[in-house]
């Protein structure tokens, strides 16, 4: 697991980008809405690895109701990642697995976290 942030650091609704593997730019983002937290890869499904935000942490529309791709104008549901407006209808954002601890810490789960869970069981 990789620590990303604390729940208190995300507004409601809100979004924030992260660079958990040191790529030099945000590669994932986390969205908070209605008490739930969702993690997404920071790449528009319409065109490869196009980053979603037009500036740091600017992932949501003005009303804070959808995720928006700055390059294509595509809009996505915050909870399902489904494209509901724009050139990628029928496509979805790529989810990343996150976990919120009981004390509000948000972690990115890595594939090896599954291995560690199963070997500890």
Automatic annotation (TrEMBL):
The keyword Repeat does not apply. Keywords: 2Fe-2S, Dioxygenase, Iron, Iron-sulfur, Metal-binding, Oxidoreductase. GO terms for molecular function: 2 iron, 2 sulfur cluster binding; dioxygenase activity; metal ion binding. Residues 5-108 form the Rieske domain. CDD domains: Rieske. It holds the Pfam family Rieske. This is Ferredoxin subunit of nitrite reductase or a ring-hydroxylating dioxygenase. The lineage of its organism: Bacteria, Pseudomonadati, Pseudomonadota, Betaproteobacteria, Burkholderiales.
